[in-house]
Amino acid sequence: MLAEAVREAKTGLAGGGVPIGGALFGPDGSLWGSGHNRRVQDGDPTAHGETAAVRAAGRRRSYRGTTMATTLSPCWYCSGLIRQFGIARVVIGEARSFVGGHDWLAEHGVEVVLLDDPGCVAMMTDFIATHPEVWTEDIGAG
Length: 142
Known about the structure:
Radius of gyration: 14 Å
Oligomer: single chain
Shape: globular
């Protein structure tokens, strides 16, 4: 599942954006939708990877039993999205570069799987080093 989110993150990076990707999988493991952070490309502060994945999945009667894969610990905005729609499980590539709301999600019944993937860590570390101003803006610290 993480591979799809990583693919999206690399697509975002190649397009000049923040390399964060998300993918939403149905209860049966099928891919419902994926996307990447498009904040820079679209000038939209709400265009996060997880949000893009839910948008790509489209309107569903229920999100129960679904899994969100994301390359980075979900921010508070995306953590709220996960809770709002009852997404059951979150697979996270890494939380070294940024610790979002994944502990809060776990406290509220969402299964959290933190992989500490070296590729995700390297991708974000490199991006932060080369684009600190964009990163600071993206996490709301600017």
